[in-house]
Structure prediction request, 343 residues.
Amino acid sequence: MTVCLGIESTAHTIGVGICETDSGGHAARPRSASAGAIRVLVNARRLYKPPAGQGIIPRVAADHHAEFVVPILQEALSVADVSLSDIDLFAFSRGPGIGQCLRVSCAAAKFLASGHGKPILGINHCHAHLEVSRGLLGMQDPLYVYVSGANTQIITENLRCKKGQSRFLVLGETLDMGLGNLFDVFAREAGFEYPHGSEVARLAEKGRYFSLPYTVKGMNFAFAGLLTSAVRSLGEHSREDASHSLMETAFAEICEAAERALCLTGKKEVTVCGGVAQNRRFCEMLSLVCSEHGARFGVAAPEFNADNGAMIAYTALREWERGKRETIGSLKPDGYWRIDEVS
Ligand code: FE2
Prediction:
């Protein structure tokens, strides 16, 4: 039995999750070959809310995380009914993310690991979104459609890798902003209530479509022209119609790129993960693409698509059983750590 405590603090969320597994194997192998079941014991989290009309203020968000990391840790230990001495492995989100926020989980995990004489792993936040979705959905080797605030990428694993190795490959991605940030900036420009993405989605359900700029280049896509036009359209179109047209256009761009990736790779499984994976309409559109290509579509429960600590613990256990080891002195936050740099 191995118990891992993971801490997340890349952006607006401070989260602590605890997971356990019976598997103890240490073998170099592709991630898709991991077999042991992992149980999520607790997934405690608290959200920093920016001031009205503004995005995340890094220093204030980091102060929020520093203030609440101990209460959230205590809540997680209490709900899971474990003590710190029961933890075999500590993990934290090492990047990508906001530098000031990343330092909170890094410092907390290092303090706990050194204080209890236990090992520590620094986990890539994007990798954690992918891994927890794949694992909880029982998928083997899916095509990943990763849609969050800052990141929007179509990712595969194991292409052109030697046996026993594993590497992520970004087949396509946004050429400017992430999907969540697109909705966030649009909503702030339009004066919508927080949370912005949910408000755009709510209004979009009542709207009708009008044409907006659509940019797909191979398996890459872009949103800047779409955003500018959608904001400008607010003078002549209703908020509902503008929200609807913005969402439909952005989702269609990603679906076209994902379909191209599906044809290229021949994958039989697709999972959508990250914060925007909670959008019902996007899941509906992507599942239609999958059904046309005979691929299974899956999306994990909302608490695992929002930023959370359980996905950090979950991924750390998978990496630990694959034989990954790190020293505490070598670990420092990396705000620009891309998924295709994870080895
Ligand atoms: Fe995230």
User: Anything to note?
Assistant: The pocket of fe (ii) ion is lined by residues 125, 129, 148, 274-275, 307 (CB under 6 Å). Residues 239-265 form the longest helix (27 residues).
